[in-house]
Amino acid sequence: MKNKNVIVTLTIIISLLCLYFLSFTFIAQNKQNEAVKFATEKDGTVNLEKKQEFLDSIYDKPVYNLFGIKYTYKEVKENELALGLDLQGGMHVTLEVSPVEILKGLAGTNAKDPKFQEALKIAGERYRGGKDDYTALFFDAYKEVAPDQNLSHIFANTANSGRITSKSSDSEVKKVINTEVDDAIDRSFEILRNRIDKFGVIQPNIQRIQGTGRIQVELPGVENPQRVRNLLQGAAQLEFLEVYHMPEVTPYLNQINEYLLAKEKDAKAQKDAEKAPSSEAAKNLLTDDTTATAKTDTAAVADTTAQTKTDTTQKASAIYNLLRSGYSLRYEVKDTAKINRIFSDPKVQAMIPSNMRFIWEQKPYKDEQGGTTLELVPVKKSRTGKAGLTGDVITDARADVSSNAKSYEISMSMNPAGAKKWKQITREASSDPKNKRRVAIVLDDYVISAPVVQVEIPNGQSSITGDFTMEEARDLASKLKAGKLPAPVRIAEETIVGPSLGKEAIDSGLNSMLAGMIIVILFMVLYYSNAGLVADIALLFNLLFIVGVMANLGAVLTLPGIAGILLSIAIAVDANVLINERVKEDLNEGKSLDTALNSGYSNAFSAIIDSNVTTLIKGFVLLYFGTSLILGFAVTLIIGIFCSFFTSVLITRVIFNMRKKGTWSFSNKFSNNLFKTTTFDFIGKRKLFYTISSLIIVAGIISISLKGFNLGVDFKGGRTFIVQFEKPVSTEEVKKNLNDVFGSSPEVKTYGSNNKLKITTRYLVDDESDEAPIKAEQTLNDGLSKISDNKAQVLSASKIGPTIADDIKTSAILSLGVAIVLMFLYILIRFKKWQFAFGTMVSLFHVVLVVLALFSLLDGIVPFSLEIDQTFVAAILTVIGYSINDSVVVFDRIREFLSIHRGDKTQSQVINNALNDTLSRTIITGMSTIFVIIILFIFGGESIKGFSFAMLIGVLIGTYSSLCIGSPILVDFASWEDKKEPAKEASQVS
Question: Is the pTM of this model over 0.85?
Answer without folding.
Answer: no
